[in-house]
Design a protein that fits this description.
Elements (H helix, E strand, L loop, with lengths): L1 E3 L12 E10 L16 E8 L6 E3 L1 E3 L1 H5 L11 H17 L8 E4 L7 H6 L4 E4 L3 H9 L4 E2 L5 H9 L4 E7 L8 H11 E12 L1 H6 L12 E2 L2 H9 L4 E8 L5 E7 L6 H13 L4 H27 L4 E4 L3 H9 L10 E2 L17 E2 L3 H5 L3 E4 L5 H7 L1 H5 L3 E4 L5 E2 L1
Parallel strand pairs: 6-7, 6-9, 7-8, 9-10, 14-15, 14-17, 15-16, 17-18
Antiparallel strand pairs: 1-5, 2-3, 3-4, 4-11, 10-13, 12-13, 18-19
Helix pairs in contact: 5-6
This protein binds ligand DWN.
Ligand DWN binds next to helix 11 and helix 13.
Length: 409
């Protein structure tokens, strides 16, 4: 089930401007089982629009969250050592910065498999995870992270608050862009946060997405693509203030936002707001230029892979990532070009990539089958993966990165 927006998701302006269409594509995390590949797959338009009023970049269609995140959601954060390290550093920093202790309370929205909250639990700090995906929520409980398997909402925040639960810290990583009810979600943060509390929110940064042409991070789970300009407006609509921001390299470039109930805006925020105005993120032309670069990448990547294939090369891919689904479906990279995809996430083994039905195998398959080239679908973890695959590379195997420019590494 899908709905098309009639107004901007943040400011309700009716004048959103379409800037990029990636076609009608299957759900990026909808990895198929063997007995599903002959049945028709749900496909939805994947089209991006810009709001000239508040600068929010957003999908024009909303796919039902139940269809995206509940049953069988295959994404487990703990399969990435780099993400675990990144999250641990964030948690330890917050414990120190906010003087958290056994009298504190930390809530994570979209807590997945407990990858982050476990660090607070280890320090004796009471936590609560909230995540609608059954598998990851069960995995979190299994390592001692109390988790409510449900979607976060304004109503849930009110219910928790009425039970006397209020947070010193709310963490929300890679979820704000995913929610259909953006205002309800932010309103819920305001309700659940203590007056002296802080919400620490990570989200992919639109400026990195455009500058590095990371168009494959566009998929139906990601309804919004945030600039600081749009975020600042969103939080102020709910009596919250974007007081500080850090730029991070994770996931191809992200923001870590520090949001509080009392205004105390850091120069880091005002600088990014000024830079966004000066560099064009508040104008539609910035995104129209991005769209033409995306089309160029599709042409160049198809040419590179077809050329290698015609010379007899065998090609595989690494990372059954959601972004990988967008890439192979928008660029139409099928089993005629890519023999298989490997991934460390055991929940993904034996499944097939959405739309192109490329089989997903364990990473050992690279040494077993020795493809000549591997398209790096999880390019955001390139350093870690290339290091991990040293043996394959020493045998002459070569990785290909698709963005920001398709090239053999
Ligand atoms: O917003 C989201 C982003 C943050 O994470 C979620 N909607 C879902 C997910 O998107 P993704 O699947 O594109 O994210 P990843 O984490 O870039 O996917 C990496 C894939 O690569 C995972 O399936 C795990 C796998 N992997 C691996 O096989 N070996 C990852 C590493 C680091 C490795 O060494």
């Amino acid at each position: 089930m899908q709905e098309k927006i009639s107004a901007c998701r943040i400011c309700q302006s009716p004048g959103v401007v379409p800037v990029l269409s990636l076609g009608v594509t299957p759900l990026a995390d909808g990895l198929l089982k063997e007995d599903q590949i002959s049945a028709p797959e749900p496909r939805f338009p994947l089209s991006v629009a810009f709001c000239p009023e508040c600068s929010l970049v957003q999908l024009q269609e909303t796919v039902s969250p139940d269809q995206l995140f509940c049953q069988d959601y295959p994404y487990y954060s703990s399969f990435s050592p780099a993400l675990l390290k990144h999250s641990r550093e964030n948690a330890l920093n917050l414990i120190r910065l906010r003087n958290l202790n056994s009298g504190s309370f930390v809530i994570e929205l979209a807590s997945n498999d407990g990858y982050l909250l476990k660090n607070f639990v280890e320090h004796g700090i009471p936590v609560l995870g909230i995540d609608p995906a059954e598998g990851p929520a069960r995995a979190a409980e299994a390592i001692g992270v109390p988790t409510q398997c449900t979607f976060f909402s304004s109503q849930l925040a009110q219910d928790l608050r009425s039970e006397g639960k209020a947070a010193d810290v709310i963490v929300a990583n890679n979820v704000l862009a995913h929610v259909a009810d953006t205002h309800g979600f932010v309103d819920g943060i305001h309700t659940l946060l203590k007056d002296t509390g802080v919400a620490v929110i990570e989200a992919p940064y639109l400026k990195d997405l455009v500058q590095h042409c990371e168009f494959d991070t566009i998929y139906h789970e990601h309804l919004c693509y945030f600039s600081v300009t749009a975020l600042d407006r969103l939080f102020r609509m709910h009596g919250l203030f974007l007081n500080d921001v850090e730029r991070l390299s994770i996931h191809g470039g992200s923001l870590r936002l520090y949001v509080e109930k009392i205004e105390n805006v850091s120069p880091r925020v005002t600088t990014l707001l000024r830079e966004e105005r000066e560099e064009g993120l508040t104008h539609v032309r910035y995104y129209q230029d991005f769209a033409s670069r995306v089309e160029r990448i599709r042409t160049e990547l198809r040419m590179l892979l077809n050329d290698l294939k015609q010379k007899g090369a065998r090609i595989a891919a690494y990372g059954a990532a959601a972004k990988g689904s967008t890439l192979i479906n928008y660029c139409d990279l099928g089993t005629d070009l890519i023999d298989f995809v490997v991934d460390r996430n055991t929940h993904k083994h034996g499944r097939y990539m959405p739309g192109q039905h490329i089989p997903i195998l364990a990473t050992e398959a690279l040494l077993d089958k020795k493809p000549d080239y591997v398209l790096l679908l999880a390019w955001n973890f390139a350093d870690e993966i290339l290091e991990q695959q040293k043996a394959y590379r020493q045998l002459g195997g070569r990785f290909i990165t698709p963005v920001p420019q398709p090239r053999v590494m």
